[in-house]
Amino acid sequence: MTIDAWGHPERTFCTLSCIYEAMSEFSKTFQLGGDLEINRLGFGAMRIVGDGVWGEPKDAENSKAVLRRAVELGVNFIDTADAYGPDASERLIGEALAPYAPGVVIATKGGLTRQGPAKWQPVGRAEYLVQQVEMSLRLLTQERLDLWQLHRIDPKTPVEESLGAVKELQKQGKIRHIGLSEVKVPEIEQARKVVEIVSVQNKYNLSDRAHEDVLEYCEKHKIAFIPWFPVAAGKLAQPGGVLDAAAKKHGATVSQLSLAWLLQHSPVILPIPGTSSIAHLEENMKAAGVALSDSEWAEIEAAAKG
Fold first, then answer.
1. CATH number, domain at 157?
2. Annotated catalytic residue: which of 84, 128, 204, 217?
């Protein structure tokens, strides 16, 4: 069943709340950690910084405008990391949005160092993570981080040391909830022996489902699954393909349909498409108003498996 949430030839725009009023096939929100209700279609703040996720953006005021517009449209879950810039993304969020509107949840990550554009190196030493949490609090202008995620498990540092330090910060009231990024099921289980894990952020989209077992684990344990690189690529996204055809039928783009598929695929999935463009942001948000019919779903699934 197609839900035309905006429904005007001139493509006027609804906020997420307006779009969600038309939705019935899948859940609108998710209870993160059991106590933070967030709209499932969020925003990823990796692209509001310089090229290669390095340095300052070309237009800082534009980046701040994108962030403010996201909140205006009903986004109340924004994901960032201390490594984006580094520091630039967190600082821009703090400058643009603090004091934060009620209900807005900022998730950040720590545990990756930067050596240059598109260069990343995990560091999970306790003292380093403690330092980075303090920096994140300062840059985001917060007294407590609603969600802090270990950006990568450092192979040189036992995860018990990394998460043990973060657990102490949680006891001190500086972190509300803890999550993981780019992990396998055994690593999640190991981490859960140290702290409660409320989210997992892995690469996942319609055409790349290498972490399907992780998603199933998250569903079983009511853990949020945050897919990075959420838009389908490769054969499925090519012009003239099944995804392109379905998108045209809905008056949508392939990107919108990719996000809509994620929202329908699992109630624990929280897509966080990112952009540095207000127009692209508004386009992404329309994905919440697209619902695939059973026949469209079956056709797309068959194409993905093929």
1. 3.20.20.100
2. 84
